[in-house]
Amino acid sequence: MKVVPVTVLFSAPGPRLSTLLITAETAMEKGAEWLSIVPSAQAACDRRHEEHEKVYTTEWSGYFRGVKGTVVFSDASDGEDGGMPFAAFDSETGRKLFEDSSLLDYYQKTLHLENAFRVTSEADQNPRLTYLRVARAGCNLKAEQWECWDKVRAEFGITQTDTPVCSRYERADWESAIVYPVSVVLTDSPQIKAVDGPVFCWPTD
After folding, report:
1. Of residues 96 and 51, which shows the higher confidence score?
2. C-alpha angle 182/187/189, rounded to 5°?
3. Distance between alpha carbon 8 and the CA centroid of its chain, in Å?
4. Distance between CA atoms of 40 and 17, rounded to whole angstroms?
5. How confident is the model over 31-75, as pLDDT tens digits?
6. What is the total count of domains within the chain?
7. How far apart, in Å, do the first and last CA atoms of the chain sit?
8. Better-scored residue on pLDDT, 41 or 95
9. Separation of alpha carbons 73 and 100, rounded Å
């Protein structure tokens, strides 16, 4: 197993986090064996964990995505239904703040979408995520068009009234994955809210 040091420079309230340690992909399976955060610029590149190191072994297995303030983002080891599961962790406590699934980069490029995943800060410094969420509809939007669409709009709070045009159904006839824009502030109890924007659908994996 190879341990890789990644240096990240940013301004944040509280202790300055300047070094992250993550593992490279293992030979036998996808995902890192463990992810960890060390609040030190002199962290050793070592398999042994330091006293103040936050290790995510059971919570999450994937890859480092980025940092905003004191929040660290990680992707899952693999995508599903056209989305990539991700999680947000508090770098000071190691607590997982939030997890969901956002549109894969491949589909962002295919659909010619820009800034499909954005992180901004509220006045109280809490990060706000705005992204294209990928979720299972629980029904087939191609076969049960209006009935399924009414169910999806009610469940996810989507305001768009026009039924989305589903793609990739040439050889599939099962549950749909719905892709729609949302916004969420990472508070103690994050609430996902649908916002205006394009909606897509296709068969689940």
Report:
1. 96
2. 85
3. 19
4. 6
5. 566 666 666 555 566 666 666 666 655 566 777 788 887 788 888
6. 1
7. 31
8. 95
9. 11
Q: For residue 85, what is the enclosing H or E element?
A: strand 83-90
Q: How far apart are CA 89 and CA 173, in angstroms?
A: 37
45 in Cβ contact with 75 (< 8 Å)? no
Q: For the segment 171-194, what is each residue's pLDDT rounded down to a tens digit?
A: 778 999 999 999 999 988 899 999
Handedness of CA 194, 196, 202, 205 (dihedral sign): negative
Q: Which residue has the tokens 């956002």?
A: 102
Give the domain extent around 61.
3-203
Structure letter (DSSP) for residue 83: E
What DSSP designation does 166 have? Answer: B
DSSP state of 94: -
Rounded to 5 degrees, what are φ and ψ at 133?
-85, 140
Handedness of CA 189, 194, 199, 201 (dihedral sign): positive
Coil, helix or strand at residue 120: strand
